[in-house]
């Protein structure tokens, strides 16, 4: 998608404008941690299990980030029939691709210590 005024496009025709949207989503607090945790467990997480694994995240922050990631089609929310209903969060195909692309960044940050 090209910006009409080309303000975010390079001379070679590549545009960074689409990057801004995804950066806005994943740069919010907890988003990369949520993606990393969901990507590391193929069968997904229940809400409370994910909250426990992310030390310090409030239920509201976790809920807000999961909703945003779901609206961007990076996270899937599956309700399984049970008493009480069981909700499982997993990464979508796009979420898995993003997870794979974030891993070098996460490794680099961990190496810096």
Description of the structure:
By secondary structure, this protein is mainly α. It is built from five helices and two strands. The chain has a two-stranded antiparallel ribbon. Helix 2 crosses helix 5 (93-112).
Task: Throw out a few tags for this protein.
5 helices; mainly alpha; 11% strand; globular; two-stranded antiparallel ribbon; 113 residues; single chain; Arc Repressor Mutant, subunit A
Strand-helix topology:
Layout: H1 17-26, H2 31-40, H3 47-53, H4 59-71, E1 75-80, E2 86-91, H5 93-112
Helix pairs in contact: 2-5
In short, what is this structure?
The protein is mostly helical and 113 residues long.
Rounded mean pLDDT is 89
Q: Supply the number of helical segments.
A: 5
Which spans have pLDDT < 50 for at least 5 consecutive residues? Answer: none
User: What is the assigned CATH homologous superfamily?
Assistant: Winged helix-like DNA-binding domain superfamily/Winged helix DNA-binding domain
Structural class: mainly alpha
Give the percentage of residues in beta strands: 5-15%
Distance linking N and C termini: 38 Å
Order of helices and strands: HHHHEEH
Strand order in the largest sheet: 1-2
**CATH architecture annotation:** Orthogonal Bundle
Work out the radius of gyration: 16 Å
């Amino acid at each position: 998608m090209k910006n009409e005024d080309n303000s975010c496009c390079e001379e070679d025709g590549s545009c960074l404008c689409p990057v801004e949207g995804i950066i806005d989503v994943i740069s919010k607090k907890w988003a990369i941690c949520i993606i990393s945790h969901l990507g590391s467990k193929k069968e997904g997480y229940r809400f409370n299990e994910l909250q426990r694994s992310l030390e310090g995240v409030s239920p509201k922050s976790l809920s807000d980030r999961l909703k945003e990631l779901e609206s961007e089609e990076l996270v899937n929310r599956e309700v399984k029939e049970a008493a009480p209903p069981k909700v499982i969060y997993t990464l979508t195909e796009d979420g898995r691709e993003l997870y794979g692309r974030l891993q070098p960044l996460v490794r680099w940050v961990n190496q810096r210590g």
